Amino acid sequence: MNLIAVAKSLKAFTQKNATLEAIYKEICSNKSIPFKNFLKPIDLIKVVFLTKKILNGEDPKEIMSKLDNNLFLFSTVEFEKNEQELDCEKCSGDGKVTCTSCNRDGMKECNMCGGSGEDEYGDDCDYCHGWGRVECTDCNGTHYSQKCSQCEGYGYYFTEDYVPYEIGYYVSYDETFKTTLEQKLLRNDTEEPILNSEKTFLLSMNFIGAKDGESENIKGIFANTTHLLEVNTEDVGENLIYKNGKISPTGFYNDLDKFK
Among residues 110, 108, 93, which one has the least CA distance to residue 139? Predict the structure, then answer.
């Protein structure tokens, strides 16, 4: 398939000043663009870059060899704040729990007569009036629930035990940018990578929330920071799949041991 011809056909679907990410999202989401179902993920990525060249009024042939030989993938991890508001596990966020003192009917055994309804002389108990049961003081006779003791009825609690994060997967053909990223990895200087290359765009983000994945193992000192994870230049096309309407790398970019 002639990728330049495909890119030219996209002019009808994209605005002239569209960014690489805007072009990419349009291709992935617009059902009126039929050819995307016949393109390999790596070819769709090339079409995004070619389309941007055409929109800029430039010759797309100028970058074809670079797209064939210089494409690389890299990933970043962005840690969120570690003060998280979580639903209470005991009440599932309701703020109330089923009363266990009264079997859910709002009444419980009378403590004065032990449930017999009589006093020591065989007369009706003065406290329960012979019924043997009294209104439950734990739920005030509400029959079904009481305030959750774990969250004090709020339905949530705050914790610093989790650091949620997002892993971002990017693609680029910027050789100078790749060298910069590789040097950062060699120096172990991965914090706050600058992602300002005009030859780069975001493929997908993978969010890991609190109590999901490894978020409970991330050290709190990494909260509110962003780090470069990995740069991959080998078999780029072999490590890409279509997933949930996006292109996603597979099989790498998930080593967070240094942050635990």
Answer: 108
End-to-end Cα, the chain, rounded Å: 46
Q: How far apart are CA 147 and CA 139, in angstroms?
A: 8
Q: Copy the structure tokens of residue 260.
A: 């635990």
How big is the chain, counted in residues?
Answer: 260
Cβ proximity of 154 and 94 under 8 Å: no
Please name which of 238, 175, 244 lies closest in space to residue 203, comparing C-alpha atoms: 244
Identify residue 227 by its one-letter amino acid code: H
Bridge partners of 156, per DSSP, are: 87
- Residue among 195, 188, 182, 168 at smallest CA distance from 231: 182
Beta bridge partners of 76: 168, 228
- Contact of 79 with 163, CB cutoff 8 Å: yes
- Global pTM value: 0.78
The tokens for 38 are 């016949």
Measure the CA–CA gap between 162 and 97, rounded to whole angstroms. Answer: 25
User: Of 106, 231, 116, which Cα lies nearest the Cα of 179?
Assistant: 231
d(CA 192, CA 169): 15
3-state class of 20 per DSSP?
A: helix
pLDDT tens across the length of the chain (260 residues): 699 999 998 888 888 889 999 999 998 888 888 777 788 999 999 999 999 999 999 999 999 999 999 999 999 999 999 998 899 988 888 888 877 777 667 888 888 898 899 988 889 999 999 998 888 877 777 766 677 888 888 888 898 999 999 999 999 999 999 999 999 999 999 999 988 888 999 999 999 998 888 899 999 999 999 999 999 888 888 888 888 889 988 876 567 888 99
